[in-house]
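Revision sheet: structure tokens.
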Amino acid sequence: MKIDWAALGSVFGVSLLATVALVGLFTLGIVGLGKQEEAAASGGSAVLARTGAYACFALCAAAVAYGIYLIVA
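Predicted:
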């Protein structure tokens, strides 16, 4: 049996990049929701923070759905 180390490294790299990107997006969404609460407490507008947070969560959901589609199809 011969192992294709280049392909294994490529899969590892893409998996690592996708994981870091998803965790980063989710973290930005949580930070955005936290900023929304701070803005509301200080009397400012929280619409931009909430919209950005929801956009991050939507991108995370889209990436997960695409991954499931790739596995099932």
